[in-house]
Fold this protein.
Amino acid sequence: MPAVHDRGGWPTDEPIDREEHEWADWERQTQSLRTVLDSRGIMNVDELRRGIESIEPAEYEASTYFERWSASIETNLVEKGVLTTEEIDERAKGLRDQWGYPE
Amino acid sequence: MSDNKDHGGFFDTGWRPSGDVHRDEDGRPHEHPGLQEDVGLGVRASRALAMHELLVEKGVLGENEVEEAIEAWSERVPSNGATLVAKAWADPEFKKRLLEHPKETVIESGFVPEHNADVIVLENTEDVQHMVVCTLCSCYPTALLGPPPDWYKSFSYRSRAVTEPRKVMSEFGLELEEETEVRVVDSNSELRFLVIPRRPEGTEGWSVEQLADLVNRNSMIGVAAATEPGTD
Amino acid sequence: MTFSVGDRITVKDETPPNHHRTPWYIKGRQGVVVEYIGDWLNSETRAHGGDGLPKLPMYRVEFDQSYLWPEYKESASDKLWIDLYEHWLIPA
C-alpha cells in the first residue's frame, strides 16, 4: 500500500470540489513563514515535504493543508534545535487562552 | 474596532496580515474582512503562530520578515501567467522564446521564479492537451499563478488526475476529441509547469490586454480551456 | 548521462525509508525517456539535512496511460509524463 501522501490513482469517485475556503490569517502567515525559513537556509522544501510525509496517516488525512505545514515546520525546527517542543507548547497554550479554543 | 480580539486579527501588537485582500478564482482581489472572529485557534494554527513569535523573539527572524513575505505573496497572481500566455498568443517570437527559454523569459517579464526551481512552459494544441497535477504534494508555478487552489491540493484531484484526466477535465467544462493526446504531467521535481491553453477563435487582432482576460487560471493548469470571447 | 531520448527504461521497484519523489504507480513500470532535463540537487538527501550535492541527472519519462492503469477507459493515445532521477532508472 502506498504511503499516505502518495495519492496518484487511489480509488475514489469523489468529484473535484472547486469551492475555495476562506484563508485564515494564520494560513497566510504559515505559508510565508515557510518561504522565509527557506530563503534563510533554515528549512528547505524537501525538508518540508519529508516532515509532512512523516505525519501519522490518520492525522495526515484529517488535517488541512496548512495544518500539515505547521506540523512539518515544527518537526524540522525542533530537530534542528532552533526551538523546543516545550516552548512551543507553552506559547501555543497562551495564544489559545487568549484567542479561544474552537468548538 | 472597539474590541481588538474580535476585529484586530490574532495579534494585539497590531500585526495584520494581508488577510483583508481576498481573491477570486482568477486571483482578482476583492474586499473581504478575512478575520477569524470567534472561531478560536486550532492546535496547529496556535503552534504555527507560536513558532513565529518565538523565532522573532530569539532574533532568528526579523520582526517584519514574515509580513514582508506575505506582501510578496500578493504579487504572485494568475494575471502574471495570463500576461505571458497572452503575449505568446499575440507574438510568435515571444512564444518561441517562452517555450525554449522559459525561466529567462519569465524573469525578463518582471516575475520572480521560485527559489531553487525552474519553469517549464507547455503548449496545448489541437493534437496535445497537457494537464498538470502533483500527486505527491502540491507543486505548482506559484510565481505565475499564485498559491494553488484548494481543488489542486485535494485528495480527489491528486488521485483522479492520473487515472481519469478526461473525466476530470469534463468536470471543468472541457470536452476533448478522442484524437487529442492527453499528457498528464505529474509535477514531482523542482520544475514548475505553466500551460499555454489554445487560443480561442475569433480573437484575431486582439490586444495583449484583451487576450489576457481570456486566460483563466484553470486553463494554465491544463484542466480547462481558455475563456471564450463574450462568455466572461 | 546514461540515457538518451528514446531509451526504454524500467523504474526501480523500491520503497526506501527515506524521502523520495518517485510515486508508487510507476515503480517497476516501463517507460520511454523523452528528455534529459539537466542535473538537479538530490532531494533524497536534501530532505534529511544534506546539501543535495552532487547534483544528479534527471529525465522526463513518458508512460502509456493504458499500460499504467489496466482499467483505463479514456483514450489509447494518452500519456503520462514525470521527471525522475537517473538512479531510479534501469535499462529495459
